[in-house]
Amino acid sequence: MGFRKDFVWGGATASYQIEGAAYDDGRGLSVWDMFCKQEGRIKDGWNGDVACDHYNLYQTDVDLMKEIGYKAYRFSIAWPRILPEGTGAVNEKGLDFYDRLVDSLLEANITPYVTLFHWDYPYELFRKGGWMNPDSPKWFADYADIVARRLGDRVKNIFTHNEPQCFIGMGYQDTEHAPGIRFPIWDTLLMAHNVLLGHGYAIQALRAAIPDAKLGIAPTCSAHYPDTDSPEDIEAARKAIFDIEPDRPFWSVSLWSDPVFKAEYPKKLWDLFGQHMPKIGADDMKIISQPLDIYGQNIYNGQAIRSDGKGGYDFVQRPWGNPITAAKWPITPKALRWGPKFMFDRYGKPIYLTENGLSCQDAVSLDGKVHDPNRIDFLHRYLKELRNAADDGVDILGYFHWCVTDNFEWAKGATERFGMIYCDFETQERILKDSAYWYRDVIRANGENL
Ligand code: GCO
User: Fold this and answer.
1) pTM score over 0.85
2) How far is residue 19's CA from residue 134's CA, in Å, rounded to a whole number?
3) Among 19, 124, 163, 416, which one carries the catalytic annotation?
4) Can you tell me whether residue 22 is helix, strand or coil?
5) Which of 269, 299, 102, 111 lies closest to 188, judged by CA?
6) Integer Cα distance of 265 and 267 in angstroms
7) Pocket of ligand 1, candidates 355, 378, 406: which has the most ligand atoms within 8 Å of its Cβ, to mutate?
């Protein structure tokens, strides 16, 4: 069967990781600008002040996407570039930039897919309590409305949040990401609820402004998969992927996606943290669970799961010396078959793989090229498994490789290269890596050559 004939092949990025121009044309501060100023927070001390200078070089990047043959490009909009204070006065120059970018993409026959929030939270709103402030859901919805009114005539595919697991879990619990301040569980659960309310109100605003839009959300997950194809291991893996870990609740996918698609928090969350859950307003779950058209999932890896023979599950010890990426993430292609399958079975929404890829220790060889055989092998293995998911009947609409260009990899700075396009951060030269040419051929064959 293979991928659907109109399968969307593309790549993804995020505003703070690529744009640069952090202090240009009226952009306001984000929590990441302030986080990077704190000694020791970023592995190599880099920041997003310039990054890949995509704000000025976007046409170069669009031309390269076109050369690779992208059908679509998923990018995020920098909230503080649109609303420097997070609310209030709109920065027209910020909107103008995304206008230009969208027009350039459409000119290149590349469909724009927008993520409204990919972690660069307005610092002025953080100072007002951020996601703990009861007004925070409406702040986000007002921002969504402004974007929709300016771009909605040309942008028809919009995700509200990217990976709330990270911007709440890593920002306010693990503290590896901005703002890097640990809050107690009763505050982080309140933040999560406001994030979800913000999603719901934003969907209402987007639906009103762009009636023909396809709207969704793009969480991530650790896509656990069965150790064997036995029904027992499959059901054990399904239980594991939607479970909630007591010490890392925000890393679950069900905490975020059950409210959105099922209008309820998982029972396990109430069992674990009932006494700390925020007050749920009478209409809250109805607001959060606005009907959606699409579901984004960022999947990089997962864990093999075996039935424990008693209705539960066990994590299977990874084989010694199992393959890992340059970022030391495990390489587990089966995650891209079973993650989408379990999500589609539970939520019933068409799925975009909104992120998948790996960090490699890429460098320019003496021949002036960037040879990345590890990335080609990784993508080949993962895409074959994604095609298996499609053959299993999962409605997979598209795949966005992470990432288009090498970029600012959050707390890892410039030390991890995820791009299919090499970026020299000193000269801003771009070089298509071997994987870009390989991906071009996969796109041309719609994955039939995998
Ligand atoms: C994420 C983020 C991306 C990361 C990428 C590599 O999934 O964590 O969406 O911004 O850069 O995943 O870590």
Assistant:
1) yes
2) 30
3) 163
4) coil
5) 269
6) 6
7) 355
DSSP letter string, 149-173:
HHHTTT--EEEEEE-HHHHHIIIII
**Helical (H) or strand (E) element with 139:** helix 136-151
pLDDT tens, position by position, 62-83: 999 999 999 999 999 999 999 9
> Residue 273 half-sphere exposure, CB side, CA atoms within 13 Å?
22
3-state secondary structure of 220: strand
Is 426 tagged catalytic? no
Integer Cα distance of 341 and 346 in angstroms = 9
Give the integer Cα–Cα distance in Å for 158 and 421.
24
Tell me if 450 sits within 8 A of 384, measured CB to CB. yes
- Between the alpha carbon of residue 370 and those of residues 68, 71, 412, the distances in Å are 15, 23, 21
Instruction: Tell me, using a 6 A CB cutoff, whether residue 301 lines ligand 1.
Output: no
Segments of the chain scoring below 50 in pLDDT: none
Q: Tell how strand 8-12 and strand 72-76 pair up.
A: parallel
Identify the pLDDT of residue 375: 98
Among the listed residues 355, 385, 409, 416, the single catalytic one is 355
Instruction: Please tell me the distance between residue 447's alpha carbon and the centre of ligand 1 in angstroms.
Output: 24
Give the pair of three-digit tokens for residue 362: 């890429």
Is 355 part of the annotated catalytic residue set? yes
Q: What is the CB neighbour count within 10 angstroms for residue 243?
A: 15
Q: Which phi and psi (to 5°) does residue 196 adopt?
A: -70, -40
Q: Strand 351-355 and strand 295-299: pairing?
A: parallel
365 contacts: CB under 8 Å, gap ≥ 6: 371
For residues 275 and 278, give the distance between their C-alpha atoms in angstroms, rounded to a whole number.
Answer: 9
Q: Which atom of ligand 1 is nearest to the CA of 412?
A: 13
Q: State the pLDDT at residue 1.
A: 87
Torsion region of 226: left, alpha or beta (phi above 0 gives left; psi -120 to 50 gives alpha):
beta
Residues 128 and 134: beta-carbon distance below 8 Å:
no
Distance CA 285, CA 275 (A): 18
DSSP H or E segment with residue 218: strand 214-218
Map residue 398 onto helix, strand or coil. Answer: strand
Is cis: bond before 403, omega within 30 of 0? yes
